[in-house]
Amino acid sequence: MNQPALKKYPVGIQTFSELRTKGYLYIDKTAYVYRMANDNSKYMFLSRPRRFGKSLLTSTLHAYFEGRKELFEGLAIERLETEWTQYPVLHFDMSLGKHMDKEALTRYLHNSLQNNEIRLGIASREAQDTNIRLTNLIMDAYAKYGRQVVVLIDEYDAPVLDVVHEDRDLPALRNVMRNFYSPLKACDPYLRYVFLTGITKFSQLSIFSELNNIDNISMDNGYAAICGITEDEMRTQMDADLDVFADKLDTTKENLLDKLKSYYDGYHFTWPSPDIYNPFSLMNAFGKGELNAYWFGSGTPTYLIEMLKKYHTPPTEIGREEVALEDFDVPIERATNYMPLLYQAGYLTIKGKDTEFGSYILDLPNKEVRLGLMSSLVPSYIAEDTRKSNRTLREMARHLSRNDMDGALQVLQVFLSTVPYTDNTDYEGHYQQVLYIIFSLMGYYVDVEVHTATGRVDVVMRTAHTLYIIEVKLNKSAAEAMQQIDLKHYDERFALCGLPVVKVGVNFDSERHTLKDWTIQ
After folding, report:
1. CATH 3.40.1350 occupies which residues in the chain?
2. pLDDT band, very low/low/confident/very high, at 23 (cuts 50, 70, 90)
3. Which letter does DSSP use for residue 272 in this model?
4. CATH number of 382-520
5. 44 pairs with which residues across the strands?
6. How much is the pTM?
């Protein structure tokens, strides 16, 4: 039986017209486009993580408002729209405005304005200020075409993201952007629709000046699946693709779906919400025919690591926490901890909600993010030489696959003894973080400070065959660590886990910065 012809996978392609005219797969989101364009709100903002489809959504809106009906043939919006009115569209992509100082950013905005003037056939009027030039452009477009203007701004926050953790450059760049966006409210009579996308949420005061009428749809239930791919969309619009992918991996379709869910699913931007798959990773996986960390591998933003350092956030504290909405859905400049940025950037997601008390459960979305985040923290906690650390992880994993914890700890001891000394390692918690990162990177379930009836276990790690209870000591002895496990009967807490329980007492040496001794029962 012949397989049906498959469409090409749009890896990195964010232009709607290109997807539709060159045979690329397009997951139909046009019903959302129609709803957005005909909603009561004239100004809308959507926050989603990087590479999650914001630019494609913006491009789709652009094509819709230009009345390009031919591009939407066979899609949901074809049954909804009857008029296909053409509007003049101003489209600004701020993603290229990164790593710039105040002067360079101003030049970039002028260039973006010029590109829109040329595309709409409007002569530029001399203006040194970007806000005046934008005002002139909106009014001239309105006068020339006799219709209200649509303004689309993609990645509005890109110019300030890399300096969001510092106080030196952020105010100046923020003022440039605030000045540029300021005409959007004053020009209201000339505007049909304004849409902005971004990763982070800034307050109206700091970025949008007087534009206080933006409808933030980021957590609206009705728009929960506007970006990303749901399992239902994958099972229906990519059903034939699943068959081909499963054949390539020599597995069943259901087994493939389980693996895809483990790696790329698990995002929720409101609650309740369908499970959302990362579209960038999913398209890459189907296109290349293998599972890998595509989203995280495409680049760990420097601001992420800098913010974790700024708030002194150890890896073990990231996620698995019940919080109030105001703890994570707040403007970035008012953040007092790491959580708002990690949530808005997609490294944390909503995993549940207590409606009675208005709290949310935040955690890492999936295996790709967990492994990627731990990998990015290795240079700060373990070693800058990733080649050596990756080799160590492989050797440890081979030992643990044979239930040989003693061999794994021998490998770790040798490795840590070769790592150059770093500051702030002379406390027990540092070595607890080291074990947490290492075991997480090997793909095992690992938790710290696990409560029992008589105390807290430092580290609990589970492989496919064994559950390990690990007590960590510094400058003491492994025997003392094991004694604590026995005296407090930590193993009784896990008697019904269904796996053999192995007790491990480890002792680190602060002078040598590695394992001194250990005991295993």
Report:
1. 382-520
2. very high
3. S
4. 3.40.1350
5. 195, 215
6. 0.85
